[in-house]
Each structure stands twice: as C-alpha cells, then as structure tokens.
Amino acid sequence: MEKIGEIKRINGSLIIAEGLKGVKIGDIAYVGDLKLIGEVVRISGREVALQCYEDTSGLRPGEHVISTGTPLVAELGPGLIGGIFDGLERSELELWKKAGPFIKKGYRVIPLNREKKWYFKPGVKPGDRVVEGDIVGVVRESKVVEHRVLVPVGINGVVENIEEGEFRVDEPVAEVRLPNGVKREIKLMQTWPVRIPRPYKERLPLAQPLFTGQRVIDTFFPIAKGGTAAIPGGFGTGKTITLHSIAKWSDADIVIYVGCGERGNEMADILTHFPELEDPRTGEKLIERAIFIANVSNLPVSAREASIYMGITIAEYYRDQGYDVGIIVDSTSRWAEALRDLSGRLEELPAEEGYPAYLAERIAEFYERAGRVVTLGSGRRIGSVTIMGAVSPPGGDFSEPVTSTTMRFVGALWALDTELAFRRHFPAINWLRSFSRYVDVLREFWERYDPNWFRLREEALRLLEESSRLEEIARVIGEKALPDEQRLILLVSEILKEGFLVQSAFHEVDRYCPPEKQVRMLRAIMEFYRRASELIKLGVPVERIRGLKNLVELLRLKEKKGLEEIDEAEKRLIEEMEELKAEYSR
Ligand SMILES: Nc1ncnc2c1ncn2[C@@H]1O[C@H](COP(=O)(O)OP(=O)(O)O)[C@@H](O)[C@H]1O
Ligand SMILES: [Mg+2]
To answer: Which of 118, 129, 290, 501 has the most CB atoms in a 10 Å sphere around its CB?
Structure first.
C-alpha cells in the first residue's frame, strides 16, 4: 500500500493529490513539506481530495502527501479540563507560548501534556473482571472534577495488575488479560475518532432540566439534560452573552465551549478572559470544570469544521464517566459555512444558497449526539450531553438554510429578536417564536416547587400572546378604547415582560434566578392578575389598578434576594388591593 503521494493541484484549503493508494475517506495525511494536517474528503480514481486544516499558501505541486492511515482522533484523558484547544485539539496556550498569535504552519503540539504526572487511585484490584466502559480508578483532574479512568472500548477481561501512584498520561496504570490470553494495557489516556459517536448501552428518556438560571429559558422554553437547543439571532442580539450566562450558571457538571470564530478579536478575548471567569457554583474559576475549543489562530475556515466534532467527542467522553455535560457552540453557522466552502471547492452540486445538499443530514447528525444514556460498563452509570448552538442568520433572516434546518432538529428554540434587542429587552428571546418540546417531561421537576406551575406558565404565555394581538388593535383604535379587562391584559403583560422576562446578565442579583424564585415570581404576578380581574368585575377602573402604589413591587421582585422579601412585597400589594375591593364592594 502506497502511503506517499504527490500534490497535483491546490485550491485554497482543498488539495488534490495523486499516488496515494489504499487511503480511506476521513484518513488524516500530512500535506507538503510543512506537513500540514489534511483529511481525505473524496477519492476518485487516482485522485484523492484532501481538506487542509491549515493555511495552504506556499504549498507547491510536487510536494509529498503522507497518509497516516488513521482518522482524525481526539486524545481523551486528564489534562483536558481547563484547556484551551483549537479544532485539532492543539493547545492554544502552548501554541501561543511557542509561536505567538500568528501560528506557524505545521506546528506540532501534542494535545495532552506528556510530562505531567497525575496521582492515580485504583478502583479495582488484580483478579477483578472488567468490561469496556468500567471505571478502573480515578485521578483528580482539577479542583472540582474527578477524572474517571475508563476501560477503553473493546477491552473485556481480568485485571492482571494495577498500581496506585503517579503516572504520565501515556504510561500504563493497569493490565487486563483478555479471554484469549492477550494482555492489554490501560493508560490514563485513550483516543477516539471524532466523527464517530462514542457508544453507550442505552438511550434514556429525558427527565431533568438543564437549569440555566435564566427565567425566560427555564420557565418558558426549558431545556432538558440530554436535550438540544438552538439560539438563532442577528448580529448583536445577545447570542454570546446568553451562552456565556448558561456556561457560568447552568447546572452542567462540565461545560465545553466551542468558539467557532464569530469575530477575530472575540476569540483572542476568550483566550485572555476565559481563564479568569469565576464559577459561581463552586467558588473556583469556571475553567476548573470547563474546556475551551476556539480557533483563535489564523487557521482557515476548514478547521472550524473539525472543532465541532472535537468538542462533541470530548463531551461524550465525560458523559461516559457519568457526568452531565453541556456543550455550547458559538456559532454553528460558521461551521456550516466551512461545509459550504469545501463543497464549493469540490464542485459538488449546490442546493439552497450554495450549501451542499447534505447540510440537513450533517446538522441532524450533530444534534443527535446529544442525549441521556446508560454508559458502557457494568452497573448502571448515567451521563448526558446537552447541546446548545448559536445560529447567526445573515441579516437576522430565519428562513435561511442553516437556521431553518436547525429549527427542525432541535428540542428547544430560543429565538432572538432584533426588535427586542433594539429596545434593550434582554435576553431578547421572542416568546412568540420560541418553543420547547421538553415542558411535559420537566413538569414534575417544577411542580415540586409549585403544584400549579404548569397552569401558571400556560396562562402567562396565553396572556403574552393575547396582549400582542391587543397591542395591534390598540395601535389602531387607541388603548383607552379597549374594554377594561383587555387593558388589564396589556398591563399584566407589561409586568410579565419587565418584571419577569427581562433579566440582565450583569445585575449583581438577577443574573442568576434559582428555580424556587422563578416559580415564586411567576405566582406573584399571576396572583395579581387573578385579583385584578376580580376587581375589574366589581367595576374598579383599570386606572385605579394601574395606580396602585405597590404595583411597582412586581417589577422589583427579581432584585430580591430571598423568598421572604418576595412574600412581603406581595403582601403589601394584596393589602392595597383588598382596600380597593372593600371600597367597591360597599
Ligand atoms: N442578557 C443580557 N443582559 C444584558 N445585556 C445583554 C444581554 N444579552 C445581550 N446583551 C447586550 O447585547 C450586546 C450584544 O450581545 P452579544 O451576545 O455580543 O450579541 P451576538 O453574539 O448575538 O452578536 C451585549 O454587549 C450586551 O450589551
Ligand atoms: Mg456573538
């Protein structure tokens, strides 16, 4: 089998080589004298097309292409947490230290540090029988993450020896004898081809929320652990801020943040600021339970294509250890553009707006890697991967292919709205265009806080819908021409928007809203509506209700620290309403 070929043509990131025999689609090859990383994307006759993940300028026809015979793999093991990697899992920090911001081409950096020693504590002993996916021991990977060392897929047998102590990632910590007598080493690290989903035993129904602390999401358009959500929005509508809030506040054990180059400086910003982010959950830095994949360097678009698979593979690996992992991609549109770019260079027949016909398939395949599963291994270990992806439609037009396709495959949609963002209603999530298919499965969780949660939520949404209809009418005939019960709906929906939906990511208290507080706030506002409707029936003019001096309390519930403070504020308002009622009942 000939592993060495020769460059024939160069078209941007696409390289056409000849002479490579026996290569497969997906194989990684080193391209040219600089040994740039390329992946085989098409084989036709003698010609092999490679997608190159590095800047190809300077390459010349005639230079060699060397196939490695292996696909693009992720290195998985301790040392990932706290890391900032590029789409090929090269440590950005190491690259930065070695080469500065303008990374020299073909720079080889091994993903996992080979020097560092980790203290390994065995969880099994010689003579124990182990199967693929079993935990053989643990390593403290960061202040908050315990790394569970897994028996790699394909190994089932009896532990021959296993040792406690300090190990490098590529040193054997244990040996397993297979039924056929062959011995296999287990190391702290293993590898996995990124384009193939890691196996599990069983897919489970979703049952728990991935709680984000953002009211409009958790209360109205919640996401379940193991679920998927997309957050489409035009430039400046708040995709990044919302995803940052989720990274910081959600109750995922581990966060994987894939930054697919929105703006150049944004990524450089991440590199300097990300290690500084506080983790409100643990009191440590967020980076103690997070991994960053960002193309901060001058890598071409094609590298973004790889980064999303690198991210999801690492997410699955921590899922397999029994963790709830949240993976955030900002933005999937950049990834789709990389697909389009490659497809164009391959001269494939384009479908809508130049995207390849397989765009939908690729998007679906990616989101299908989310889920809540019983992992491999004996026993019943459960882990999950929740995917949240930003989509950046050009001009904010949701009918464009990437947005409209993504909307078909996700379980929740947080539709950002330019108009709301313009009015500084943040998060600018449009409550009429967003959806969540997880409400029913999460109902039980919420009704532990309040048995009426489902009904209150439905009522609030109905009220918001009704009010947008009434606003249209009011624009024509004037608000005052509406009957009082309709004017009340407008008043309550204003309170819902200002007092509940609007939540500043920068407010000391309000940036995170715990579940019991979300439920309590919703109940207070809806209780106000119930009592106010009664007053209207008694003949109280809506102006009198609007004029209640304690009404403003409802707008300030979000700033309250404890539930007692909310109780007290509500009590003051109710007392005032009781007085009004007495006045009109006489
Ligand atoms: N939840 C929020 N709270 C307060 N301000 C917000 C919020 N979301 C967005 N913003 C404002 O909107 C601006 C743009 O948000 P950003 O996330 O960068 O947009 P995008 O990523 O969609 O281009 C931010 O700089 C901030 O001022
Ligand atoms: Mg952004």
So the answer is: 290
Render 479-522 in DSSP notation, one character per residue.
GGGS-HHHHHHHHHHHHHIIIII---TT-TTTTS--HHHHHHHH
Q: Considering the domain 453-585 in this protein, what is its CATH number?
A: 1.10.1140.10
Residues with CB under 5 A from ligand 2 (ion): 239-240, 262
Q: Please provide the DSSP assignment of 63-93 as one string.
A: -EEEEEEEE-EEEESTT-TT-EE-TT--BHH
Least confidently predicted of 24-33, 264-273, 361-370, 499-508: 264-273
Domain borders along the chain are: 4-71, 113-188, 202-436, 453-585
pTM of the entire structure?
Answer: 0.94
What are 134's two structure tokens?
A: 């079993």
Question: Fold identical between 4-71 and 453-585?
Answer: no
252: tokens are 């995922």
Q: What is the CA radius of gyration of the chain?
A: 28
Encode pLDDT of 138-157 as tens digits.
999 999 999 999 999 999 99
Which CATH class for the 202-436 domain? Answer: alpha beta
pLDDT for the residue numbered 268 = 67
Q: The tokens 């009011």 sit on which residue?
A: 474
Q: Please choose from 235, 237, 241, 503 the residue to mutate so as to test ligand 1's pocket, defined by most ligand atoms within 8 A of CB.
A: 241
Assigned CATH for 4-71: 2.40.30.20
Beta strands in 365-499 (DSSP E): 371-374, 382-391, 412-413, 435-436
pLDDT at 96 over 90: no
CATH assignment of 113-188? 2.40.50.100
List the alpha helices (DSSP H) in 321-428: 332-345, 359-367, 401-409, 418-422
